[in-house]
Each structure stands twice: as structure tokens, then as C-alpha cells.
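Incident review: delayed structure delivery

Summary: a single-chain prediction request sat in the queue longer than the usual turnaround. Root cause was a stuck worker, restarted by the on-call engineer. No data loss occurred. The affected request and its eventual output are reproduced below so the record is complete for anyone auditing the incident later.

Affected input:
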Amino acid sequence: MEILKNNIEKICSFYVSDWHLVTMLLPYINKQINEKANIITILENDIEENIKTLIKRLNLKNEEKILNLNWKKTNGIKYSEIERKLKNLKKEQILNVVFINGKKEYIDMTNKNVEKFLSENKNKYKNINIKIINCFEVSEFNINMQEILHNHDKILNTSGEKEINEVFEGYA
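Output delivered after worker restart:
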């Protein structure tokens, strides 16, 4: 995947509940849609009802586009399912954003399959920019935040995309 490394930015995010996740994601997704990004979701848990409920309370310009994204649970994380989703990457978009949420094991396996797909299709996707946003459920007791932070370029929280050292002082 070395050829694509310059075109991929990995961002991590941590959430404590589906409501917290949705509250954090909606303004960010709205902004990404304004910037003409293509958005793909790979979700361990169905958050469609949370999205529908919260979007009614927010005044977002892109309400319909947000609702039309797939907020249902992804059926498995097999390579074939990831491949089917990633075939929606668009070369003509300024940016492709891939949201992955769930427990660490789910995210790790999904990332391996995303990397495999991109490596196998490196010539097709070598000139596109991709943001992979891994949203970790922090209710897991075996989550190693230092390891996660080390493997990501930035962090996404309720105030948007930030450098990791802006959120975690002293992190280097």
C-alpha cells in the first residue's frame, strides 16, 4: 500500500454511545458534503434511527444527502463486503471519506480489508484522496488508546478534526 500512503489520511475518534457518535458525526459529515466529498459508511452497529431523530433537531443544509447515506449495520466485514462498499470510491471527487465504527476488533479487521482492496486496486485509485475515519467505541476495556493514536494522523471530536497533540497535551 506504499503507493497510496500519501493519498490516505487516517483519523481516529472515540465515542461512548451511539448518540455521542451521531452528535459528533453529523456536523462533520454536513461539512464534508459541502466540500463535495464522497462518503462511505462501514458500521458495526445500525445508527439509522439515531441519525433520523437527531437530524430533525439540527438545521443542516444537507439533510437529505445525509439521510441517504447508509446508516445501517454492514453485513459482516468479509473482504467481499468491504470490496462492494469501496467500489463506490469516486476518482472525480476531491475527497472520499470512509467512516468505520465499532469495537476495536471490527475496526482492525475492516481496515485490513480496506488496505487489501486499495493495494489490489492501486493503479485505479492512486490519484484520489481518502480519509479513513475510525470511530472507536470506548466502552471496551481492552482498548489501548496510545496504540490507536500512534496509528492515526489526526483525531475527530465534537469540535471537528484536530491534530492529536491539540486534544492530548504532551502527545508526540
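Verification: Residues 18-34 form the longest helix (17 residues).
Action items: add queue-age alerting; document worker restart procedure.
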